[in-house]
Amino acid sequence: MFYYVLKFVVLGPSLRLLFRPRIEGLEHIPDDGAAIVAGNHLSFSDHFLMPAILKRRITFLAKAEYFTGPGIKGRLTAAFFHSIGQIPVDRSGKEAGQAAIREGLGVLSKGELLGIYPEGTRSHDGRLYKGKVGVAVMAIRAGVPVIPCAMVGTFEIQPPGQKVPKVKRVTIRFGEPLDFSRYAGLEDQKAAIRAVTDEIMYAILGLSGQEYVDEYAAKAKTAQAEEPKRFPRRPR
Fold first, then answer.
1. Hey, is 105 helix, strand or coil?
2. Is 43 helix (H, G, I), strand (E, B) or coil?
C-alpha cells in the first residue's frame, strides 16, 4: 500500500513535475506478466525516476548497504527501501551473486517486473560499463523478455557524491523487448550467458548513446581510486 501511495500520490507526481521526464518507448513495457527491465545506472536518482513513470510496480535488486546504514539515518533509509519493495543484495562474492539470482527469480515467478542494473553499480564517469551475467541467467531460466532501458541526463543532475539533484529535464527510453528463448537450457553455459549479457548491453548502448568500456565498473572505480597512491603528486 505504501508503495502505491508514494508512487501515485506523494513522490511520483513531484518527480514528474520537477524533472518533466521525456518518456520514449513506454509501449514496450508489458501490461502484465513477468519481464526484466535492464538499464544503465548513472545516478542515485535512477532508483526513483524510472519507477515513477511506470504504470506497473517494479521491484529492484538494491545494494545491501542501503539497508544496513548506522544510526537513525540508516534505519530510515532501510525502512524506506523496504517499504517500496526493494530487495537487498550483498554484492560481495560468488555466493552473493547466486542469492541475488534466486531473489530475482522469485520476483519473476510471481509475474512481476524486475528492475536490474547489469553494470552492478553506478557509473562513476558517465560511461557504460561491461554487464554482469546475472541478468542473462535470470532471463534464460525464467523464460522472460528483457526490456532495455536508458536513463539520459541523470548523471548531470546527480553525479556520484552529489546529495541533492539539480532540477533539470531528463529522458527515459525503453527499447523493444529482447527474446532469449533460443538459449533455453543454456543458463549454465558461460559462452551463452556472456552472449546474452552483451546483447542486452548493446541494446542499452544504442538507446543511451554513451561511450562503452569493456571493463567492469567496480574494477574501473577501484583502479581510479588507487591511481593517486601509485602516482603521488610530487611536492612543489
1. helix
2. coil
Residue 153 gets which letter from DSSP?
A: S
Cβ(165)–Cβ(18) under 8 Å?
no
Q: What is the pLDDT of residue 104?
A: 93
Measured in whole angstroms, the distance separating CA 139 from the mean position of its chain's CA atoms is 15
Phi, psi of 75 (to 5 degrees): -65, -40
How many Å separate Cα 100 from the centre of its chain? 13
CA terminus-to-terminus distance, the chain: 61
Residue type, position 147, single letter = I
Cell 524510472 belongs to residue: 50
Cell readout for 88 is 537487498
Which triple of cell numbers denotes residue 86? 526493494
Query: Mean pLDDT per 10-residue run, the chain (236 residues)?
Result: 65 79 96 97 89 90 74 74 73 71 94 94 95 96 98 93 88 98 96 98 98 93 72 53
pLDDT at 10 (0 to 100):
67
Which amino acid does the sequence have at 207? Answer: L
The closest of 178, 191, 182, 209 to 36, measured between CA atoms, is: 178
Strand partners, 178: 146
Res 92: pLDDT: 64
* pLDDT value of position 216: 93
The strand pair at 146-152 and 171-174 is best described as antiparallel
Q: What value, to the nearest 5°, has the Cα angle with vertex 20 and ends 135 and 37?
A: 10
